[in-house]
Design goal:
alpha/beta; binds magnesium ion; four-stranded mixed sheet; disordered N terminus; globular; binds adenosine-5'-diphosphate
């Protein structure tokens, strides 16, 4: 992803005069007003309040963020919001520049940030503000090439941070990771074509897909043209080509790609014309032995409103899912992320985060960033567990609060194919008893409800019935891999649904 504009200042060279620049402060305050209206309270507090405006010069507002990671997070999550806000407050010529506080020793990070490409803010439309969430900010640079040219230089759209070396392996992602590796080593040559990676939000799909691209670039250089895009960019670019009567050039462009990676393909749902054009591109590439990599938040068969022939093609190669990481993997990822951010966190803090952030790796990263930010801004040097708990309190409350017994019941009955009311009735039919036990187990492990409350939600059963259910499910999970997998899957779904 390209930043709006980035520069870097050393922590030790922050200009105090610039810090007191009143004008910058008032412009930033105006921005904050708008941002506040478009983010929830906690996110606003965590991500925007700690930012300091540094200066305003030549239509460029410079803001200071605590870490490189922080800047990446803003760019990833809030690019469109920032873009539209700056345009509203400063006019279309307004630019935003980040200044990242860098520790003296952190030269690699400094180097990386300095080499970032610069990009002015694009034109703004009024509706942008309401649709900023999760929009993919980068788009394919120039899909229109002169037909007939064999090798085109394609901007691959790759983020160099997403590499295999930084992807921690665990039971939850082993198959996906090794398939991705195989594809990267031999693009188009394995039977994994397409490679279809799927799983919940924040579980590493984009990271893996991008790792494939980066690895191929590393192994094959200019020999292979690699393109990473999101279905959303693909769609936007397609619509634009239709508007300018250049649809055939659009298709032509993709024919020159050796490795096509399309992220978040579930957004094909209901877009008939995009499905059509994608279908043709898919066929052409596949026939010519080009590699296709797709990601989705669910399995091919579960993507609604997508034409059958496309779904069947998605199943031609290999589908591999990414599951929620278990405790040990979460711990390893955290250790690695802390290290990448240049901090060492004591064991009990890593343990605390690993225990409390279960639903997405992205949230765990958020926790680390928040700790880092707190240490920079509130100036404490020692990370101890009490401080960590205090700093992360809001994030944890947030992630546990919104899972309800009702939502667990809905998910369980859906997976088991029964009416959710049956969970509350007295029936002793085997499949209903099983579903009820699973729902009780999940209610105990995923909410803070007491045994009594849980019993009441299942037709007024007493707490010993709930205890028995929990023990039965725990036993089955230990002895039956299928049950274990199903329950992990359910946890994943319930947690994702509650985000
Ligand atoms: P998704 O595309 O599935 O929503 P991402 O690939 O964007 O998720 O992952 C979210 C964040 O979590 C990224 O910063 C990524 O680097 C990190 N992440 C996810 N899984 C792993 C892993 N196994 N090892 C290291 N980092 C991971
Ligand atoms: Mg993603």
């Amino acid at each position: 992803m390209e930043p709006l504009v980035t520069t870097i200042l050393s922590k030790h060279h922050v200009n105090l005069e610039a810090l007191n620049n009143d004008h910058a402060q008032s412009v930033w305050n105006a921005c904050l007003q708008i941002i506040k209206e478009h983010t929830n309270h906690q996110k606003f507090k965590s991500w925007f309040e700690p930012i300091r405006p540094l200066k305003l010069e030549n239509d460029t507002l410079t803001i200071q963020v605590p870490t490189h990671f922080w800047y990446e997070w803003l760019e990833e999550q809030y690019y469109n919001l920032l873009r539209t806000t700056i345009a509203q407050v400063m006019g279309p010529q307004g630019k935003l520049e980040y200044s990242i506080v860098v520790e003296k020793s952190d030269t690699t990070d400094q180097h990386r940030a300095m080499n970032m490409p610069q990009r002015p803010l694009g034109p703004i439309k009024a509706q942008d503000l309401n649709s900023y969430v999760n929009q993919a900010p980068t788009e394919i640079k120039n899909p229109f090439i002169i037909p007939g040219l064999k090798k085109v230089k394609v901007d691959s759209n790759l983020n160099s941070n997403y590499v295999f070396e930084r992807f921690i392996e665990g039971d939850c992602n082993r198959l996906a990771r090794s398939a991705a590796m195989a594809v990267a080593e031999n693009p188009g040559k394995s039977s994994f074509n397409p490679l279809f990676l799927y799983g919940g939000v924040g579980l590493g799909k984009t990271h893996l897909v991008q790792s494939i691209g980066n690895k191929i670039k590393q192994l094959y250089g200019e020999e292979k043209s690699v393109l990473y895009t999101t279905l959303e960019s693909f769609t936007n670019e397609f619509i634009r080509s239709l508007q300018s009567n250049r649809a055939s050039e659009f298709t032509m462009f993709y024919r020159h790609i050796d490795v096509l990676m399309v992220d978040d393909i579930q957004f094909l749902s209901g877009k008939e014309k995009t499905q059509d054009v994608f279908f043709h591109i898919f066929n052409t590439l596949h026939m010519e032995g080009k590699q296709i990599v797709l990601s989705s938040d669910r399995a091919p068969k579960d993507i609604p409103q997508v034409m059958e022939r496309l779904i069947s093609r998605f199943n031609w190669g290999l589908s591999a899912d990414l599951q929620l990481p278990d405790y040990e993997t979460r711990y390893a990822i955290l250790e690695r992320k802390a290290q990448d951010n240049g901090i060492q966190l004591p064991h009990e803090i890593l343990e605390f985060i690993a225990h409390n952030f279960k639903s997405s790796v992205r949230d765990m990263e958020g926790a680390i960033v928040k700790l880092l930010a707190a240490s920079t801004l509130q100036k404490f040097d020692e990370f101890d567990l009490t401080t960590a708990k205090r700093v992360l309190k809001d994030m944890i409350k947030d992630s546990k609060n919104h899972i309800s017994i009702e939502s667990i019941q809905t998910h369980v009955s859906e997976i088991c194919g029964i009416d959710s009311n049956k969970l509350k009735e007295k029936t002793r039919k085997k499949e209903i008893v099983e579903a009820r036990q699973i729902a009780m187990y999940l209610s105990k492990t995923m909410t803070k409800s007491s045994l009594k409350t849980i019993g009441l939600h299942f037709g007024g059963r007493d707490h010993s019935t709930v205890v028995h259910a929990i023990e039965t499910v725990e036993h089955r999970m230990r002895t039956n891999a299928r049950t274990q997998r199903m329950i992990r899957d359910l946890q994943n779904k319930i947690e994702v649904a509650s985000l």
